[in-house]
Design goal:
The complex is a heterotrimer.
Chain A: H1 2-20, H2 23-48, H3 57-73, H4 78-100, H5 105-125, H6 127-130, E1 136-137, H7 145-166, H8 169-186, H9 191-217, E2 219-220, H10 222-225, H11 228-241, H12 248-266, H13 271-285, H14 289-296, H15 305-312
Helix pairs in contact in A: 1-7, 2-7, 2-9, 2-11, 2-12, 3-4, 3-5, 3-9, 4-9, 7-9, 8-9, 11-12, 11-13, 11-14
Chain B: H1 4-32, H2 39-57, H3 61-82, H4 92-114, E1 128-131, E2 134-137, H5 138-160, H6 162-172, H7 175-179, H8 181-206, H9 217-231, H10 236-257, H11 259-276
Antiparallel strand pairs in B: 1-2
Helix pairs in contact in B: 1-5, 1-6, 1-8, 1-9, 1-10, 2-3, 2-4, 2-8, 2-9, 3-8, 5-6, 5-8, 6-8, 9-10, 9-11, 10-11
Chain C: E1 5-16, E2 19-30, E3 34-38, H1 45-53, E4 60-65, E5 68-69, H2 75-80, E6 83-85, H3 98-104, H4 111-124, H5 140-151, E7 158-162, H6 170-185, E8 189-193, H7 197-203, E9 206-211, E10 214-219, H8 221-226, H9 228-234
Parallel strand pairs in C: 3-8, 3-9, 6-7, 7-8
Antiparallel strand pairs in C: 1-2, 1-4, 4-5, 9-10
Helix pairs in contact in C: 3-5, 4-5
Classes of the chains: A mainly alpha, B mainly alpha, C alpha/beta.
Amino acid sequence: MTAWILGGALVAAAAVLPLVTASYLVSFTIQLFLFVVLAYSWNVISGYTGYTSFGHTSFFGIGAYGATLMMLHWKLPWLLACAGGGLLAVAVALPLGVVMLRLRGSFFAIGMFGLARVFEAVAFGWADLTRGGTGLYLPPAYDLRPLYYALGVLALGMVLLTWRLDNSRFGLQLLAIREDEDGAEALGIKTTRLKVRAFVLSAVGPGVSGGFYAVYLSFIDPPTAFSPATELTTIAMVLFGGMGTVLGPLVGAAVLSVLYEGLWARFPQVYLGAGGVIIAAVVLLMPRGVMAVAMRRGWLPHGRGTLRRLAARPAAPAEA
Amino acid sequence: MRTLAELLANGLLLGGIYALMACGLNLIFGVMRVINFAHGEFLAFGALLGVSLVIGHGVPFLVALVLVAAAMGVFGYLLQAALIERVVDGPPIMSLLLTYSVSTILVNAGILIWGGGYRGMPGVFSGSVPVLGMNLSQARLVAFAIALGLTGLVYGFLARSMLGKAIRAVSELPEIATVSGIAAARIRYLTFGLGGMMAGAAGVLMAPMFASDPQMGARFVIKAFTVIIVGGMGSYAGALVGALLIGIVEVTGGYVLGQTFGTAILYVLMIGFLLFRPSGLFGLRVVAR
Amino acid sequence: MGARPLLLVDGVVKRFGGVMALNGASCAVTEGSVTGLIGPNGSGKSTLFACIAGVERPDEGRITFQGERLDERTPSEICEMGLARTFQVTRLFREMTVLENLVAVAHGRSDAAAVRRAQELLEMVEIRRLEHALAGTLSYGQRKLVEIARALMFAPKLLLLDEPFAGINPRLQNRILGYLKALHEGGVTLFLIDHEMRILLDVCETVLAIDAGEVIASGPPEEIRRNPRVLAAYF
């Protein structure tokens, strides 16, 4: 109950923020929302399903270019164009998932990394469409508030979606794939179908938010769209918070965003390496992240409460 | 107008340097099943250290080569001993994440040391040499010869010396690593050192050909992955053949399709091999699944 | 006899590199029976199970279940047809609770129905009290019981049991034996591998003996025990 009150207060605070404060905090929160979306999306495929991706910026970039081109050529309103970018990312993710998920472990990670570089090369090389390294320009957005709310809703949606996932059989089956894919398959879990579904699901957030990012910057070029730094930051956030947990990505995104903001202001020269240091520290010291530590110490309840509540229910009177 | 023969020869020459780098990467993978994502940064550091020594301090090229290779070897040994050894027995993805993080830390460190810009090593080798009627760059010829020599030297070390045989034993039967404890750990340190040395040397050899910058590692590590995936994970000879092949594909692909799409071809090749022939051309085991 | 074969294995060959693991194995499991599979180590018992469950694909021969080919389906499809299994070395999802282990493999039901079914099964093997324990924290015997309960989640027609009695104490062996007999009475066909001759003789109606990748004998347990080819393979 307290969790819901706390969450509600957080959402309410986020909702009134742009009405009361200056643009700096709004701008910061937009980037926070962006990383919340990316972290939760990555968490679905890499945290729950166990397929660590080093190339999810592929979908971010595809969404960014898709939305920008739809705005420029078809004159679509930005919100619709961003949804279109998400759709495009999904359309690309479906066949890619079928193919790439045949790889396992480190090979999937490296394959995805290579894939992101392929898309980046295409964005550079297909100059007729993307204007290559020059990039594409959009009319600047003077009022960031609509964007703020759109990203906020998307971020909230990702949190709720993950909460649903964590409490569903689909989520359990993804965890089963993470632990023992062959065993899961032998027990009747349709592993291929489920992991492709998780992969496609994990492409929606990056696809849509890629468009939002292009609107935010009013500019997109290949290094921005397919930036390895975005990937690194996302991974660091989820690892820090805890892979395969409901609140981990939120905690990771919030803590690291504040940390990065501080570093950026005071020690910009080490800013890039910070993500690396965090990942190394987490891998060596607490590979399951802070949320797992909190759960083990009993500060937080373990996830997947719905099942527990169902189990506690007295047997239903005679099934129909 | 370049002839086809010249194109192929240039690809082969480039492939020689890739061989030096990729053989080191494959050696590390073979011995401890760790994919060193930071291998490209070893190369970048090698190149930038080389530029600093040769251009900044007037050290002769070959002396710089030896010094840098030794320094990167020691660095690799220490990195393994201090960090990577701690996750070597864990899930492979943990060691990959760790080397991935080391890679970004090194990029940042490189920018702090050398700045973000490109640094060249002009005037060390210049001009071209006529070989069999083709005009080949002197820098490439020298680099190719030294790279292949070093690759062969390491191969000889692995085949002949006691230590080299021990490394191969651990590579072929990883179980003995757990049986003989400390000795196996020392072998892993040495292997990582050897891999680091080879990547560092490859960097120095590359410096006269391309301008170097701290972020060049990502471009080359993916080529090295392609090489070992095409050649066969864990196979030293496979990495050599794969490297020469990739050099040729890259140069001809770049000529036919233009620079950006030419590089993309390599990634497509890598993903294709991962999916359809995960054991590569020479790998004995199917390790990707 | 008259009972029709539920599972039919016909001339199955499986090679691993140069090694012939199965060399034209043929056998039948009749509906409603308890069939045992015995054979020395390396005789091909586990490979045969793996081929039936779809984990390995036979190089030659065919396997049918209720008249439908199995040897071209994925393990999960085979499972869905009503053929469940347990593993020689237990393979629970260690980071999930016992209840979650069962619910994860359920399909077609609402979550509430899946939970209820899981609880009934845990009740049946008398470990309901462990439902919220993490699978990784259970004893070996408890893990065996969870595996049996999990295999029953989608009411299989045929249950493959790979050494259900290995490595556990006689008291638990008898307990499991009791559960299996109850399942048999409930109409489930059982096909099990085991080394424990005592138990096989007690529970099985038919015993198949496999050696060097071939089924060399089949019949009632007493007959198999006296069969000269079986004796030759064992001693």
